[in-house]
Structures are given as structure tokens and as C-alpha cells.
Design a protein that fits this description.
The complex is a heterodimer of chains A (485) and B (290).
Chain A (H helix, E strand, L loop, with lengths): L13 H4 L12 H4 L12 H9 L9 H4 L6 H9 L3 H9 L5 H7 L6 H4 L2 H4 L5 H15 L16 E5 L3 H11 L4 E5 L8 H4 L8 H13 L3 E3 L10 H6 L5 E4 L5 E2 L12 E3 H8 L19 E5 L3 H12 L4 E6 L10 H9 L3 E4 L1 E8 L5 E14 L5 E5 L5 E4 L2 E4 L3 E2 L3 H5 L24 E3 L2 H4 L4 H26 L1
Parallel strand pairs in A: 1-2, 1-4, 2-3, 4-16, 6-14, 7-8, 7-14, 8-9
Antiparallel strand pairs in A: 5-15, 10-11, 11-12, 11-13
Helix pairs in contact in A: 3-5, 3-10, 5-6, 6-10, 7-10, 11-20, 15-16
Chain B lengths: L1 E10 L2 E7 L1 H6 L5 E5 L7 E4 L2 E3 L4 E7 L3 H6 L7 E2 L1 E6 L10 E7 L2 H14 L3 E8 L8 H7 L2 E6 L6 E2 L2 H10 L6 E5 L2 H14 L3 E4 L15 E4 L2 E4 H4 L2 E3 L5 H8 L3 H29 L1
Parallel strand pairs in B: 9-10, 9-13, 10-11, 11-12, 13-14
Antiparallel strand pairs in B: 1-2, 1-7, 2-6, 3-4, 3-8, 5-6, 14-17, 15-16
Helix pairs in contact in B: 3-4
The complex binds flavin-adenine dinucleotide and FE2/S2 (inorganic) cluster.
Amino acid sequence: MKRERPESFNTVPMKERMIIPRQDMPEQDALLRSTNFLEVNLGLTPEQAVFEAQRCIECKSPTCMDGCPVSIKIPDFIQLICNEDFVGAAKKIKEDNSLPAICGRVCPQETQCEEVCVMGKRFEPVAIGRLERFVADYAMQHGNGSMETFDKPTSSGQKVAIVGSGPAGLAVASDLIKEGHEITVFEALHEFGGVLVYGIPEFRLPKSILRKEVASLEDMGVKFVKNFIVGRTMTIQELMADEGYDAVFLGLGAGLPRFMNIPGENLNGVYSANEFLTRSNLMRGYEFPEWDTPLYRAKHAIIVGGGNTAMDAVRTAKRLGADEASIVYRRSEEEMPARNEEIHHAKEEGVEFMNLVNPIEFISDDQGSVVAAKCLRMELGEPDESGRRRPVPMEGSEFVMDVDMVVIAVGNGSNPLISQTTPEIETNKWGNIVADEDGRTSMDGVFAGGDIVSGGATVILAMGAGRKSAIAINEYLKAKVGSLA
Amino acid sequence: MYKIIKAEFIAPNVKSFILEAPHIAKKRQAGQFIILRVHDKGERIPITIADSNTEEGWINIIVQGLGKTSAHLNTLETGDYLQDLVGPLGLPTHIENWGTLVCMSGGVGTAEALPIAAAGKAAGNRVISIIGARNKDLIIAEDQMAEVVDEVRISTDDGSAGRHGLVTDVLQDLMDEGITPDMIVAIGPLPMMAAVSNQTKEIGIPTMVSLNAIMVDGTGMCGACRATVGGKTVFVCVDGPEFDGHQVDFKELGSRQRMYKKQEEESHKCFLERQMKKMKAEQMKVEVTS
Ligand SMILES: Cc1cc2nc3c(=O)[nH]c(=O)nc-3n(C[C@H](O)[C@H](O)[C@H](O)COP(=O)(O)OP(=O)(O)OC[C@H]3O[C@@H](n4cnc5c(N)ncnc54)[C@H](O)[C@@H]3O)c2cc1C
Ligand code: FES
């Protein structure tokens, strides 16, 4: 892509830029934070942000943007930070990413923009994620409420239903409301945000940020309906035929917890990560009995898995008071899909990592509660289809350890609810909805994107898919008007 | 917020609620349930839909005040609001003309059995209802049941109404009289459904039970509601709530239902203490003003 180089506000001579150290983000002390649910990271100071921005060497052909799934104009927003125009920088990001405060916190930058940052070849990459987080927070606090400069467009007279309020759905809503369509978001749960509200904990992504994002969409005119399950409360056909929706976007997420299918998985004290995290985050089980929803407080909790979900669960267990909270992962740390920062933070908080271990059975007391896990030690063999080395059990390595809580965090499948009630929508053998590049499904006027299409992925990919669908939906609606005229 | 059009006690500690819910009323079928939250810090609990009216846009639920949330719910009155209400959830009851259908119900299960009995009758079955309760005050929905089925029989644990004994004894009576059911639906407390399933397995009568698992979302997202049926794990909220009683692992389900017993007691105690404080404060107010 050819693009104009931004005007440079960076007054620091090139040589000196390389000796500015990468700015560490202040954070809560590890010992203290492992006993509370407040946000771990405290954010860069304005001075730090400017220093960090000045580390950018303004490459002739910047690669960072290629690493970003939604191609945020990274060099441009960094230049604006150099000029201390933080609100302007946030606006620049918002041109391509409607949820920067969230992405700045949860994106795996080390495998995206920061991985390909030219500075990173010889020094450490520019902390693009921390800068994104900083300007988004700054704009929320100092900007004019909603950061969008938004003139109400003339009404198109067309209605779009968005099913699911996760990042995919929110991205579609944000783009299409600007086109003058009437937008309603339907959500099954009693709060909006999808995984951002029920899965990712408060200490990593404060709910107040999400609420602000939803409120700013409401200000722009998006209608939000909670406690409404499409497929049960109303079908897609009814939305379109009876309620007059011209198009539907499905951002249903990958909400079907996978279990391991080993003996003892239904014992008391064995949770899916979805259940454990939902009880803690959405239902605020960590504030029981002030809040009504109960949650196990374990002495020794093990969490099976190595992704972000596993890290969130293990750090939650620790905060709930576990003496020992351990990750049990069948491969080695190198293969862990979790963000580096989460692994790093978990270790600081005293989480134990039992890598190359796989449970094969959970053992109960006479009350049906889990008291031990039988495990095997693993070693890495030949690479499998995913390119990662396949874990194989070591002979005679079986051992039993005492545990009083287990959380299974080995991934999610697709929720079959919509495909059960709308067989017209084609799904693949994993139950994911089949959609083309722009989110078109096999049913006319119905689009889909995010985890329900890709399988469990990331916030930014879900958002990116939502944005592509928004363009396609807009074209679809225009054509529909055209064909009627 | 979701309006309570009418709330009234129909038995000691058992309250009937008419809730404003036009979308749910329009969609719901026999056997389906809703999930509700009483207040903004409340837990999500599932309750079966006993009745509904599409024109007037309401659903009816019957609640026994057992734990913290149901006890709290039962303090709400006509004109109050629920925090959250979502549904209809679960698969509808599979109804066909089996011949003779016997609906066995215990406690508030009778309210849940009512729509199934009615649907069974409409499908052409001869329907016999067996209602069980600890004593005669705890029998609910007997009259409504009598209106839709061919025959109602009662049993009480203490003999204060109907046959002295359990619903399983009444079923035995039926058999002794030469009536052999083609299908049995059993809805009530877990031990009752387990006992019925045991009895009918021996004599080979197909039996459907409605499982009351602990739930969170009710959409298949969390797996809190899992149970073992025929050696396989099912999610009660989306695969059920009705299953073949002969295949259900009742022991596992029983212990899963007791999973939060300790916390539930703690929470209930907190709630009762708060209620007491409120009552005392109100008493004080009355004393001061009078
Ligand atoms: C614990 C956890 C931690 C994670 N951490 C990270 C991270 O650090 N970084 C990162 O990039 N990604 C992370 N992810 C992945 C990321 O959250 C997901 O990829 C992303 O949220 C997917 O967005 P989505 O919009 O497709 O779906 P979701 O966020 O899953 O939202 C779907 C929404 O649709 C609703 N819904 C479903 N069916 C219906 C229906 N029939 N009617 C109405 N509503 C319905 C659901 O209730 C839900 O609210 C994490 C995931 C988990 C579970
Ligand atoms: S209640 Fe969560 S899956 Fe059934």
C-alpha cells in the first residue's frame, strides 16, 4: 500500500532515538495484586508515552502496519504522540479500530505489529500496544466524551440486526450506524461485550472501559437489547420477515466449552473455563456473598491449558485465595498460545507452571468432589499439522497429585443454537458458520464474522471481520434499495 | 426490567407469578423454561414455564422458596419488577399419542407437569395425573390439572390427603388395577424422579424426566448444567431439560446439585439477616410515627 509519510514531529536526532530505553508500564506490585481484582497495569505516564513515541525511527517503509490485522496507521499516530496531541492520536487509531482502549490491553502485539517493528531487529520494538492503550485512555478521560466527530447521517430507512455484542458485533454496529441505518444489537446475556465481559477478568480489562464503549455507541444511536436469544426468543427468519430487518449480522462467538472426555470430569469442583470465568466476571462470584453467585475457593487449583483463557483462570483462582494455583500444560512454554505478558504476570503472581504434563483422570471423595488428579508426563515428538511438536506420553510417568479444583481451558467449539434453528445457514464440520471474505453466509442478507466463523481467535481479528462485514452489508443494503427503485 | 403483573401465594412458601413477557409467551412450548435474576447483584436461576398467554403477553411461573434467590423472589409482589428475564430455553417436550400417559409430579413439579399433561391430552392420549406432596397443604394445581386430564390421583407422605404413601405406590395401585401406562412423565424433586425411574425400568415403561440442574447462562456456553445420560455428558440447558429417566445418572446429578450447599446456606443466612434488619427498621418507624 502506498501512503503519504506523516509529518514528523519527532525532534530527537536519529542516533539518540535508539538509546531511549523501551518504557516499562507501571503496574501494581505482584504480591498486592494477587489478592485483588483491580487492573494490573497502570498505564504509561504522558512523559513516558512521549519518550516511547520518540523511539520510533520513522522507517521509509514501515512494516508495523502490515503486522496489524486492521492496518492501524501506526506511524501517524505515533507522530501525533510526539507532538503531544494525544486525543488526535486516539482519533487516528479510531479511523481503523473502534475499540483501541480494549485492543491496547488484550492484543497479542508481540506476534503482530511489534513483531515486525524494524526497531525490534536490533533493539526492542516500539511499545505500540502500550501507546495505543495510553492514548485511548487519555482520550476517554480528556476528550469530548465520545471520541468520534460524528454528524448524524440522514436515515437510510433500513434496519440491521446484530446478534451478539462481542467485539465483532460492536465493530459492525459502530461502522453501520454512521451510514444512517437503524441498528439493533441483540445479546443473549444480561450484559454487553461478549467474552470481554464474561471471559476476560477485571484485572486485565476493567468493565468500566467496555461500558463506556457501549454507552458511546448508544449515544450514536445504536439500540441494545439484552436477554434476547436469537434462535429461541425469535428466529432469524422472524427478525427479517416479521420485524422488518433488512440484514442480519451474526457475531455469536465460540461459546461451547470443550472438555477432555476423561473420567471424573463431571465431579464437583471441575469447571469449564467459561463457567469459572463467567461466575467470577459476569456474575461477580469473587464478591460472594455480597453478590449472589457462589464460586469455589480452592486450596490447590489446577488449570489445564496454555492459552489466554488458562492464564485468566489461574490468576483468578490465585486471587480467590488458592495457596497453590498451577497451570498444567501438555506442551512446553514455547508452544503456549497465551500473550507473553500474561505468562509473565502469572509467574510474578506466584502461579506454578507444570509443563509437559497431561491429566488423564480426576478422582473424587465420597461426596462426589474432586480431590486428586492423575497425570502423565509428556515429551515433545514430531511436529503435527499445527507445526508445533506433538506431545507424547512418557512411559511409566503416571503420578497423582492432590487438587480441590480443576478448570478445563482447552478451547471452545461453536455454539450450535443458531445452526439448529436455521439450517439454511451452512456450517462446516466443526460447526463454524461458513462465510466468504466479506462475511456473506449461504442465507441471503445474513452475514457472520468473528469466532463463530474463524473458531476461537482474537479480539482484533473478530473486530476486523466485523468491519469487513459492515462494508459488505452496506453494499448489500444499497443494492437492495437500488433494485426496489 | 420485567414487570410482575400478579403475584400470589398458592401454598405455604409457594408463589405463583404472572410476568409480562410478550416475546417469550409467543414462542414458548410445553417443557421449556426461563432464566431470571431478581436484582442487580443476583444469580441466574432457571424456572420452568407453567403457563402462558400469547394475546395478553404473559407467562406464569411457580416458585418454591427454598434457597436465597427463590426466597428473595417470593418477597416480590404484584407491580414489582425482575432485573432480568430470558427465554424460552431448552427443547420443548416431545409429545405424541402414546395411548395412556401417566404424569407423575411432586411438589412444584405439578405446575411444570401441567402443560405437558395438557399437550398430551390434546395429542389424543388418555392422561392420568399422579400428584404427590408431603402433606395436603403442599398440593398445588390440583384443580387445573383435573380440568385437563382424565383422572387425578393424590398421594401424601402423611396421609392427610389421598393415598398415604408415595407417587410410586399410586403407580403400583394403577398397575394392580390393570392399567398399564404406555408412557410416563415424572417431574419433581430428584429422589422422586430417581425412584420412579427405578420402578418403571424394572417393568419396562418408557419414562421421561425433567432435570433441574444448576445453570448459569442457559445457552450451552458454560457447561455448569452437565449431567451424564446413557454414559455421555449432556448439557441440560440445551440438550434437555427432558431425558430418558432410565439412562440418567441420578447419583452424579444429586451430588452436582449439592455443589454449593455450604455457600447457598451462607448466602441464605445473610439474606434472612438483612430481611430481619429491614423488618426491625420498619417496626421502629411505625413505633416512632405512632
Ligand atoms: C478467557 C478468554 C480470554 C481471552 N483473552 C484474549 C486476549 O487477551 N486477547 C485477544 O485478542 N483475544 C482473547 N480472547 C479471545 C477473544 O475474546 C475472542 O476471540 C473474541 O471475543 C471473539 O469475538 P466475537 O465478537 O466473535 O464473539 P464473543 O466475544 O464470544 O461474543 C459473542 C456474543 O454473542 C452472544 N450470543 C451468542 N449466541 C447468541 C444468540 N443466539 N443470540 C444473542 N446473542 C448471542 C454471546 O452471549 C456473546 O456475548 C480470549 C477469550 C477468552 C474466552
Ligand atoms: S447453563 Fe451454561 S451451558 Fe447450560
